Automatic annotation (TrEMBL):
Keyword Iron-sulfur belongs to the record: no
Matches recorded under Gene3D superfamilies: BEACH domain
MF terms in GO: protein kinase binding
InterPro entries per record: BEACH_dom, BEACH_dom_sf, BEACH_Domain
The UniProt record lists the keyword Membrane: no
Pfam families referenced in this protein's UniProt entry, alphabetically: Beach
Cellular component, GO, one term: cytosol
Organism this protein belongs to: Eurystomus gularis
GO biological process per UniProt: intracellular protein localization
Protein name per UniProt: NBEL2 protein
Keywords from the UniProt entry: WD repeat
Length: 233
């Protein structure tokens, strides 16, 4: 819940369903994601079926959230060919970022650790010119916080309380199953709508076996850009 005036951590309705991947946190997306998986076929036989062509953790996602903090500002500019990305695509508001997750099944970014300990990344301390939003013409500066947060420090404090709450303690193992555990790959992952592009999985590609240096470098680039699924527990 990133919209209410106050945050009630005793109410299960304020939390996301931790048994589902972020890509289907909105139930409307589940059918589309399943359909995409079932209809996918690679004529070369190299690429396995997948639900998501992007990943929940990659370098671009980290730069997206940490755009106001060096060295990530410079890395973001390098990624965008020497300039800041379009203002509307930047991380400018916590409620809007969650709304984007709810509306866009392609956007499957998870939160980064800084959301639970580092209030400075929410402030445009360096005064970067991040442009203006198209619809409102509002200048992008500090990150817009939920109404229940009195300050950046309060946002981090309450976010951390949410992470350490009874609800999360009772359900975090379901999320661990998806990211690190038995629902990470195989039939359980298919059933949970939790299959990512094949290059993200450990051991999916034997880079040492690829003699062609250009091909190997291209694959390394794909792995680096797509993100990587952690080792399975």
């Amino acid at each position: 819940d990133y919209v209410s005036e106050t945050l009630d951590l005793t109410d299960p309705a304020v939390f996301r369903d931790l048994s589902k991947p972020i890509g289907v946190a909105n139930e409307r997306h589940a059918r589309d994601v399943k359909e995409k998986y079932e209809s996918f076929e690679d004529p070369t036989g190299t690429v396995d079926k997948f639900h998501y062509g992007t990943h929940y953790s990659n370098a671009a996602g980290v730069m997206h959230y940490l755009i106001r903090t060096e060295p990530f500002t410079t890395l973001h500019i390098q990624l965008q060919s020497g300039r800041f990305d379009c203002s509307d695509r930047q991380f400018h508001s916590v409620p809007a970022a969650w709304q984007a997750r709810m509306e866009n099944p392609v956007d499957v970014k998870e939160l980064i650790p800084e959301f639970f300990y580092f209030p400075e990344f929410l402030e445009n301390q360096n005064g970067f010119d991040l442009g203006c939003l198209q619809l409102s013409n509002e200048k992008v500066g500090d990150v817009v916080l939920p109404r229940w947060a009195r300050s950046r420090e309060d946002f981090i404090y309450q976010h951390r309380k949410a992470l350490e709450s009874e609800y999360v303690s009772a359900h975090l193992h379901e999320w661990i199953d998806l990211i690190f555990g038995y629902k990470q790959r195989g039939p359980a992952a298919v059933e949970a709508l939790n299959v990512f592009y094949y290059c993200t999985y450990e051991g999916a590609v034997d880079l040492d076996a690829i003699a062609d240096e250009t091909q190997r470098k291209a694959l390394e680039g794909i792995i680096s850009n797509f993100g990587q699924t952690p080792c399975q527990l």
